[in-house]
Amino acid sequence: MTSVASHLGIRLDEYDARIRTFIPDYEVMISTAAQALATLTRGAPHILDLGTGTGALASACLQAMPSAHLTLVDEDPGILDVARGRLATATERITAVVGNFVDVPLPRCDAIVGSFAFHHVHDADLKRQVYRRLREALDQHGVFITVDCCPPADPQLAAKGHTAWRDHLKQSYADDEADGYLAAWAKEDVYFSLPHELEMLTNAGFSPDVVWRRELFAVIAARQS
Q1: What is this structure's pTM?
Q2: How far apart are CA 73 and CA 82, in angstroms?
Q3: Helices and strands: H and E segment counts in the chain
Q4: Residue ranges per domain, the chain?
Q5: Are the beta carbons of 118 and 148 closer than 8 angstroms?
């Protein structure tokens, strides 16, 4: 099992600071995803956070829905410990599960969220299966919210977005470092185009909406259709 810190080539204690140098508009996307929970009707919803990482999105969800119960799923026990520490004021409403969200049992819930998690599912057929599992885990009127890199289908627009991502990295890193990061992530992650993501979600039984979009990145909220 490779930890998320190792995947990014950083130390675990650097993660929260460094992720913002890696991903443009990170804070905006996390906040937008959490605010998309506002349509939930249950007063104390159960939110399932897949690929929790250090708990940035989970923390934002609790700020948006202070009475929520959260189940955190991540295959890296070290980073789950960091997330639990971050959410220490709500310990009694937090359940942490060590495992890969692709195959761990999913509890019934009102919402499922994930930030930069689903690009680790490399196969389109497997991703469709995962999305179907998510839909089955959601209660009626539930919502799935994902934050990820979803490039445009148009090659020219995708190239423009890639340049913008490189420019963001160059604000913190030398040119060769920026190129090295992008090359390493391209070998380990798979970014399906935004139209492809929407098609897979639709085929899984969701009605997806793009609630935020800039260059290569998107926040998608998908309800049961």
Answers
A1: 0.94
A2: 13
A3: 9, 7
A4: 4-224
A5: yes
